[in-house]
Amino acid sequence: MTSVIIGNSVTSIGESAFYNCDGLTSVTIPNSVTSIGEAAFNDCSGLTSVTIGNSVTSIGDLAFYDCNGLTSVTIPNSVTSIGSYAFRGCSGLTSVIFNAENCETMGSLSYPVFMYCTKLSSVTIGENVIIDKAIIGCDSIIRKLSQIGDGNEIFVVGDREDIKANLQVDLILLLDEFDYPPVTIDDVYKEVLEQAENFKKYAE
Description:
Blueprint lengths: L2 E3 L6 E2 L12 E3 L6 E2 L12 E3 L6 E2 L12 E4 L5 E2 L12 E4 L6 E2 L7 E2 L6 E4 L9 E2 L8 E2 L6 E2 L8 H15 L8 H18 L1
Parallel strand pairs: 1-3, 2-4, 3-5, 4-6, 6-8, 7-9, 8-10, 9-12, 11-13
Antiparallel strand pairs: 14-15
């Protein structure tokens, strides 16, 4: 199976529906579908093309995790929720068009939507769209993103001048590198900063 066109009678794609279908190269999700389940296309390493229909409101956790062949994706305006690690490890992903103006849930700081998408270099963000905390560890795009509409720049969490925000990102990536779970308690970062301040005073 290399190509899937999902019928117009389908309203949801279930959990792990196409898990590890590494021969799958293209998927068209019709407008009848409103939800993409957890890990629906997880580890479909050969997937290079996915069309997400304009009625999809939720994309589940790990939905496209480790889809290494995927090069571009468009998040339609209908989407209101994207789960944790939905596109984590999509190392071939270079372009994202993000049109979901009403997306209220996008992973979390500890479990972002886009993580380790190392070739991601272009993100087009629709007017009024905020994707703060959704992109971490994507080296090509982590510095700044252009926001269409008024021409202003939007900075992802990894480029804030706020030292605490940078500390959070660095710790999450460091812990993940050594297979530790991410820190989810905000007080931990506060404590680390306080210790750093104490060390700074001692060094002076």
